[in-house]
Amino acid sequence: MAKASRAFVCQACGAVSPRWSGKCTACGEWNSLIEEQAPTGSPALIAIKGGKARLAVLGTLASASHEAPRLPTGIAEFDRVLGGGLVPGSAVLVGGDPGIGKSTLLLQAAARLAEIGFPVVYLSGEEAPAQVRMRASRLGLAEAPVALGTETNVANIVATLGSTAPPSLVVIDSVQTLWSESVDAAPGTISQLRGCASALISQAKTSGSTLVLVGHVTKDGQIAGPKVIEHMVDTVLYFEGLSGHQFRILRAVKNRFGATDEIGVFEMRQDGLREVENPSALFLNDRDRGAPGTAVFAGMEGTRPILVEIQALVAPSMLGTPRRAVVGWDPNRLAMLIAVLEARCGVRLGGHDVYLNVAGGLRLNEPAADLAAAAALVSSMSGKPAPEDTVYFGEVSLTGAVRAVSHMDQRLKEAAKLGFARAALPQAATEGDRETKTMRLLPVAQLDELVAWFATPQE
Can you give the pTM of this predicted structure? Predict the structure, then answer.
């Protein structure tokens, strides 16, 4: 028998190399190559091997289609992110930092489904059954009829799931602990992750069960190993939160059955995760009223408008290269905004340390936060507080122009609902039929107009 060939596989990107090196040539990651068994045969030969094939069924774009059925979990924020609930036969990957609350959220969802009569299987590869039962008791879910196990061998899991009526939900916590005897690699490696996930997803789609896989994340916040798995599953969710904050944010980054960039907001308590129905009021609950360096941003997360406070501190620097520290926003975006303020508005920030923070642990990804961040920076630099009753949103270009953004009506309605009286927004937003009876619109065409407001405060 020919000896099985070996290869070195990058655990960050999955690239294969014939020899070991300290740095992956594909993604640039250091010390990520691990020796594994190389696949034999070319993909083309593997695809046609096995004898007679069956013809694929082809349709047209006009063929009748049906909306995917939904299985609500009873947790409204979880169902919102999923697009209305779990889809039978789908695969969901949930990632997050250790201790963020992934297991707590899924145990609560599994218990609620089991309590209303749906069969649920919860398999934990990291905790003993006694530990899971202790968590369930603390959450008040000890009486929920959830089938609990601790198996990590994929062959045993598939055989167990196939021996009874298909469960409605199968939770695997976590995918990094799974292993298969047919894969010559350690648990958690790319080969094991790909092989085990493929077997479980195939079983779920065949039986109609919803499969939820829990994944760990790396130090830079990406799910460990599974860019491979992210392409295989139907939905990818990230559970986010900063240490020291009780708020948790569930964010969809891929969803074949719903909108992406949708978020659900939770609050971690002693008795588990509690849904937050009005995130804007929660994020603004403890805001610093009347303090220089703060501005309220009216943002959008998926289909939901959210108001959040942006805090800035500009202080004289004693260093040759001033510091630029950002929490919750893109550092490159801040650098660009500082350059525009310097070049187009005459705001001299080159000799100052700049610190920017998004309150509440939320991470902003949209460019509409430019105007609010600029207001916070100018307010801190001038020492004059921004008006408490004003919200800001708009994208700033490199020429200093303030550009229109999407979903302006939803942003204004959310701000008006929370009692804000004025909105600083792009001038293009006021040129249509947009009218509001409760808010005064303050159009901004160029960023230097905003700077002039702080030099001569508006009444």
Answer: 0.79
